Amino acid sequence: MMLAGSVLDRPPGNKYTAKLRFAELSLRAPLPRAPTLKRMRYALPEGFVVALRAPKTALVSARGPLRFDAKLEEGFAWLLAAREALAAKLVVLPTPADFTPGQRDRDLLAEFAKRLPRESGRHWVWAPSGPWEVEDAEKVAETLGLVLAFDPLQQPLPMAKVVYAQLRTIGARQSFSESLLGDVSALLTSETLTESYVAIDAPRSFGDAVRLQKMADADDSADESDPESDDDSDEDADEDFDDDSDQESDDDEE
Q: Structural domains in the chain?
């Protein structure tokens, strides 16, 4: 099963959830409290899959990445509460470029991983940046029971049953052609995978995600897609998909 979706700074509205079943939430400060997040979750359709991207305040202190002090303890507590309030199936942990493959940082990651609650069917996704080699990061993730985030257009498919792909417009790559999306769909609908997710961070991410999801659904099904589907609406969907998102009162935010 492959699910594609956008990286959003607020929960999606009805136009989004009518076409997609997954989104990565990268919430902006001031971060909502748990009661607000629960209302956000209840507004989503049953079965909608949420990935929560951990904010910097939950991963980095004044002393550095994963070095706990009082403020980082607060941020980490918010992350755990937000995970439960949103019923997030996945939590993405992006470590910064100055978090390196050195032994000190490996030990910090191992200690951090010990603090993560584990339940069957829910995943913690590590998204390293900086000088990590893919094979090295994959071994670390496997040892610590983490899913390794990867770029399916630049990096090999991790040797795992659950994978989390990140598609971004970077450098010369400012859009995703049908051919590129087809390659991603073919890769992430492999029979070796039990779960695969694609979070798209791009100006027209919604349209890209809808196209990718349709490709994946077609790959997963023996039935032909309806050629008279509403593809023509996808072109403008990025501009209005979240117009109907619920706006929470500032009183509910920290």
A: 2-252 (3.20.20.410)
